[in-house]
Amino acid sequence: MSNEIWTAFIYGIFALAAIGWLVGAFIDRSPKAGLALLGYTLVVPAVGAMLMGFFWLFTVLWAEAG
Fold first, then answer.
1. Would you give the distance in Å from CA 31 to the centre of its chain?
2. CA distance 33 to 35
3. Residues in Cβ contact with 42 at an 8 Å cutoff, skipping those fewer than 6 apart
4. CB 9 within 8 Å of CB 49
5. Phi, psi (5° rounding) for residue 31?
6. Under 8 Å between Cβ of 41 and 21
7. Among 7-16, 23-32, 44-53, which is the least confidently predicted range?
8. Cα-flanking dihedrals φ and ψ of residue 50, to 5°?
9. Is 65 helix (H, G, I), strand (E, B) or coil?
10. In Å, what is the CA distance from 44 to each residue of 36, 38, 63?
11. What secondary structure, in 3-state letters, does 25-64 show?
């Protein structure tokens, strides 16, 4: 992969982690909020990374087929 794709991928993971952290902070305000924040911070970027990987693969395959 080119450097631009890696940079976008890394920025996307950081952005998703920040969004997940904020969503977790607003959804779960109980004493277990720290655990919820950790969960959101790990799960949301993982799902986002899988989606970005899928779209990247789809784009590469589409370009190869065309």
1. 26
2. 5
3. none
4. yes
5. -60, -20
6. yes
7. 23-32
8. -65, -40
9. helix
10. 12, 10, 28
11. HHHCCCCCHHHHHHHHHHHHHHHHHHHHHHHHHHHHHHHH
Structure tokens that stand for 57 in this block: 């693969």
**In this predicted structure, what is the pLDDT of residue 11?**
79
Calculate the alpha carbon distances from 18 to 1, 31, 49, 62 in Å.
25, 20, 14, 31
Give me the percent of the chain exceeding a pLDDT of 70: 76
Q: Higher pLDDT residue, 21 or 50? A: 50
Contact 41, 17 (CB under 8 A): yes
DSSP type of residue 66: -
- Contact between 37 and 24 under an 8 Å Cβ cutoff? The reply is yes
